[in-house]
Amino acid sequence: MIVFTAMNEATTRDPDLTRSRILQAGFELFVDKGFAAVSMRELAQRSGVTKSLIHHHFGTKEGLWDAVKEAAFSRYYEGQKDELEGADAPDSNLLRNGVIRYFRFLQENPQVVRLFTWMHLENDSTCSEMDAELVALGARRVREAQEAGLLRADVNPTHVVTIFIHACSQWFEVRPQHKNWEGIGSDDEYLEDFMKIFMDGLAPGAAGPETDSN
Amino acid sequence: MIVFTAMNEATTRDPDLTRSRILQAGFELFVDKGFAAVSMRELAQRSGVTKSLIHHHFGTKEGLWDAVKEAAFSRYYEGQKDELEGADAPDSNLLRNGVIRYFRFLQENPQVVRLFTWMHLENDSTCSEMDAELVALGARRVREAQEAGLLRADVNPTHVVTIFIHACSQWFEVRPQHKNWEGIGSDDEYLEDFMKIFMDGLAPGAAGPETDSN
DNA sequence: TCATTGATTGACCGACCGGTCAATTCGAGT
DNA sequence: ACTCGAATTGACCGGTCGGTCAATCAATGA
Question: Which residue spans does the record list as DNA-binding (chains A, B) (predicted)?
Fold first, then answer.
């Protein structure tokens, strides 16, 4: 009986909701200020629970930090993996669409970019493991396109993926600052220019005559 | 008299040396762990002086942080500015050489990359102001090259500079991690591949026939 | 209905935080 | 030789830190 446990709000106990509220508060604060600059008392206040309750659910401050990273990363990871495995036939627009989707994802999840940057700075290994798999997946698709003659073959596929990841993520990492940069455009204008250069530079036979070569 | 004040080492007082020792310790620790995670006691121990002495020379922890950033950034800024203002005739290798020099600078000063990343995350304005000037300087040179017909003219010069800055700095920002990335190459191999794609993508007339255009 | 279990609370702990201050110690000008 | 100011020290401050603990409180199964 009492199947309708969902009817109560805030009046009764709901450990799952509590957990997720703490997680959300942790996500917001850690993304904003970084792990070291956030206090347990701050986390408690933001999530509307007691400090002890956070310890009850997550053990230590590091425990909560790990849970926050885990949750954010698994969301990111699943989304990206689905997109990468979605298409199967290599066509000339596959890379273009992949870049655009990646750019859009970061655009809609700027907090994730900040979180990953904090993780990178503290040499978090979780980050690198999952990243490695995604990059490998993307690199495989680039190699397929190269073998199909759709992309120039004289560049390392992993580097191709790395370059576009860098160009996208760094854009959002420093975006709060470059609004004062002289002549800089909007997200979309940047993406458009990047795509022009990147795609043309990757076209087969792009090693044109004006290169002084080696 | 007593002109040879340099003969004494550690025996006598040397406020300048003390200052620079504290600055160095601050640089190392802040780069490594970020501002919030470093304690005054840690800084004192690392620099071999008393905690009170740090307060005497720099006022507060923030004061030292500012001094560290100031010192690092002015070194970076002067170096980059010299290079950008050095050459004056726009030639086809100007951008290529500029990118390479920027890449080499980051390669030799990986700590600076970390420092700037910490600054970005805490929305430090010092960063953006000086960055803005450097980017504007670089963008001007790109525009000159465009007007001379050496680079494609249908892309925003500021975006061109932004893209290569991102591709270089993000590479070193995440470098500790991507050693496990499948198939990734060395610094130089990455730079080489990036230059291929970037320079060919920027060549005039790069908007080739295979683009489905718009 | 009642015992059990886990959610939740507030009081409390020792450690450490950044910062201050009065007291010393040196170096340099006179 | 004396003085004055800066460099340097260690003791000390109030406050905050992350974490613990015993005690309540509410749901749940027997």
Answer: 39-58
Q: What share of chain A is helix, strand, coil (3-state, %, to 5)?
A: 70, 0, 30
pLDDT tens, position by position, B62-96: 999 999 999 998 888 888 877 777 666 667 688 89
CB A206 within 8 A of CB B160: no
Contact by Cβ (8 Å): B53, B13: no
Contacts of B117 in chain A (CB under 8 A): 117, 120-121, 173
Q: Set out the domains of chain B in order of their start, with CATH numbers.
A: 12-59 (1.10.10.60), 69-202 (1.10.357.10)
The distance of Cα A162 from the centroid of its chain, to the nearest Å, equals 13
CB contact under 8 Å between B181 and A154, yes or no, is no
Cα–Cα nearest to A185, from B155, B159, B163, B130: B159
Residue A41 (CA) to nucleotide C19 (C1'), in angstroms, measures: 22
Contact B210, A203 (CB under 8 A): yes
Residue B4 pLDDT greater than 70, yes or no: no
